[in-house]
From TrEMBL:
The lineage of its organism: Bacteria, Bacillati, Actinomycetota, Actinomycetes, Pseudonocardiales. Residues 13-243 form the Aminoglycoside phosphotransferase domain. Mg(2+) binds at N184, D199. Keywords: Antibiotic resistance, ATP-binding, Kinase, Magnesium, Metal-binding, Nucleotide-binding, Transferase. The active site is at D179. PANTHER family: 3'-PHOSPHOTRANSFERASE, PUTATIVE-RELATED (PTHR21310:SF41), AMINOGLYCOSIDE PHOSPHOTRANSFERASE-RELATED-RELATED (PTHR21310). Coiled coil: none annotated. Belongs to the aminoglycoside phosphotransferase family. One of its GO terms (biological process) is response to antibiotic. This is Aminoglycoside 3'-phosphotransferase-2. One of its GO terms (molecular function) is ATP binding.
Length: 250
């Protein structure tokens, strides 16, 4: 990281704490504004960079990858700072959004889900993700203190059995963001234009409910109905619950 501080020594570094990506994130303000994301080793940022580039090539708003690298301690990715504010910021602690903001979220979800599945090289179907969930559970990589309220006190090894037992027998496959929550959608508050999709490390082909379930949870019950109406979906409670359960492992 020392080399990054030297390379961006004309920037002011401010750590970003909103969101739950598990990575260290900093806003670099200076001659040009950037965001830096860093994780301890691994290849996840390289995979996310590939997804960001693919998403931009499809014409959807996403940051541009400026730099990608790593050393024996960490890997990092520097991206451009897109304008606008996250929906999480706009909603505030009271989770109050306007109808226009929620409609903008529904519209970007529809645009993403309308991309041709055949053109997406990233596989996040259940055949891929359920075994990953079991592997994470068996390796002790699941944060059991971060489960949804009604699952607190249970173990990951217990929950993975429920995932496997309740796995849907069909998937309505689209291109999913994978974590389409309010911190990960940036919006121009004046024009209500979505300016960027971020934290796309789980982007890929999956059931549309992989996104819808997490979006509705992020909005809260008071706003979820407005989102589903704008998206054009009558929600299926069982599919919502399954994909929220599956999310506990990532």
């Amino acid at each position: 990281m020392e080399q990054l501080h030297a390379r961006y020594d004309r920037h002011t570094w401010e750590q970003v704490t909103i969101g739950r990506s598990g990575a260290g994130v900093w806003r670099l303000s200076g001659p040009t504004d950037h965001f830096l994301k860093s994780v301890d080793g691994g290849t996840e940022l390289f995979e996310e960079a590939e997804r960001l580039r693919w998403l931009r090539a499809q014409g959807l708003p996403a940051p541009e990858v400026v730099e990608l690298g790593g050393d024996d301690r960490a890997s990092w990715m520097v991206t451009t700072a897109v304008p606008g504010k996250s929906l999480a910021e706009l909603g505030g602690d009271e989770m109050l959004w306007t109808a226009g903001q929620i409609t903008a979220l529904a519209e970007i979800a529809r645009a993403l889900h309308a991309l041709p599945v055949a053109d997406c090289p990233f596989d996040r179907t259940l055949d891929v993700v359920v075994p990953q969930a079991r592997s994470n559970a068996e390796a002790g990589l699941v944060d059991e203190t971060d489960f949804d309220q009604h699952r607190l006190g249970r173990t990951a090894l217990d929950l993975i059995k429920e995932v496997e037992a309740t796995r849907p027998d069909r998937e309505d496959l689209v291109v999913c963001h994978g974590d389409l929550c309010t911190p990960n959608v940036l919006l121009d508050p004046d024009t209500l234009t979505v300016t960027g999709l971020i934290d796309v490390g789980r982007l890929g082909i999956a059931d549309r409910y992989n996104d819808l379930a997490l979006t509705a949870r992020s909005l809260g019950p008071a706003n979820a109905g407005m989102f589903f109406e704008a998206y054009g979906e009558v929600p299926d409670p069982e599919r919502l619950e399954f994909y929220r359960l599956l999310d506990e492992f990532f």
